[in-house]
């Protein structure tokens, strides 16, 4: 069934901005949902265009980031894609109205104080410039948030699809090897529970950081810090 995307990519010559959605199966008012998303992710989702995301096995209505202040998006984004299931709702000052996503992908309005589950998104940017690992992490921390970590199989699948847009053979991750403790760790402080290493990789060399293949099976490898690759920055 054709429904509407909560995940988009916007690419230019040097960057590719990506949005990963998270379904939050907790009921909140629209304001509470917005606060939750901004604290734990980036914001309530902005919907840009039509694509295939199957909500047919779900039920109910879900908050998205559109609210009735001349119908604008929570994160300030511009999107004129508005698949209302009714006549375009006119904004009336003093009446609290927010937008919901239906299971068929259409939109309705609802009282912003009603309790509903919702979608948040995380913002990730592929930087299509070749930099050393240290240059990459400094770039991310200065301009965005940090290099990305991959902590589960779902996130791996999502990132590897976007890595296909890279202009280098590999992309840097936030993985680093410490010779003192002889362990790999995420510099973003996540636990290294999920792993996707290429087979037969010798893991105990110093001055090494983790990179992912931009193509092929998208396995992780260790690389000398001075190699120059594209990289992902997180913004959440």
UniProtKB/TrEMBL annotation:
Limits of the C-type lectin domain: 21-121, 120-234
Pfam families tied to this protein: Lectin_C
Family annotation (InterPro entries): C-type_lectin-like, C-type_lectin-like/link_sf, CTDL_fold
Domain of life per record: Eukaryota
Matches recorded under SMART domains: CLECT
Protein name stated in the entry: C-type lectin domain-containing protein
Organism the protein comes from: Sparus aurata (Gilthead sea bream)
Lineage: Eukaryota, Metazoa, Chordata, Craniata, Vertebrata
